[in-house]
Amino acid sequence: NVMKIPIAMVPFIVQLLLQVSFASYATFVLIDERNVLTAEIAFVAAALFNVMKIPIAMVPFIVQLLLQFFVSVKRINNFLNAEELEFGSVSHDKTRKEPLIIEGGTFSWDSEKAGCEVLRNITLKVQPGQLVAVVGAVGSGKSSLISAFLGEMDKISGYVNTNGKIAYV
């Protein structure tokens, strides 16, 4: 998972800070004409490395937050640019005694693609007071069936009627 990579980098960055500190001290000793690392210079450098430790350690978390930000912006953009739902696909006929009805319903997530129906020839009548559990294997259409009742899928054919209040948990 791309989101977990920055967190995995934290131990690497801590080791990198130690190596950069050591390389900085070694470079100073080699470049200095006297080849001497005084206590004054060592402690000032150590303090600067200590000050830099926290901001550098935050880099993986900032990268992770940026990745989450871009994913969120993409999802919001897709949602705002999505086509409007067709509100006429679900009837609300109060004369029918059943609170939930699908008769001969065929549904698709994209009605423009022929042959991509997710639910085909569904007939379901839920009687008043009846407890219904929608169970099945992953990818068997449970969420699609609920979405068909809510009018979130494209209705290719059939009749859908909801009567009363619907709670989707």
UniProtKB/TrEMBL annotation:
SUPFAM superfamilies: P-loop containing nucleoside triphosphate hydrolases
GO terms for cellular component: endomembrane system; membrane
Superkingdom of source: Eukaryota
Keywords, in A-Z order: ATP-binding, Membrane, Nucleotide-binding, Repeat, Transmembrane, Transmembrane helix
Residue intervals passing through the bilayer: 12-31, 43-67
Keyword Chloroplast: no
Any Pfam family: ABC_tran
Main localization of the protein described in the UniProt heading: membrane
Domain ABC transporter per the UniProt entry, residue ranges: 119-165
Cellular compartment(s): Endomembrane system
Membrane protein topology class: Multi-pass membrane protein
UniProt protein name: ABC transporter domain-containing protein
Protein source organism: Cuerna arida
Lineage, uppermost ranks: Eukaryota, Metazoa, Ecdysozoa, Arthropoda, Hexapoda
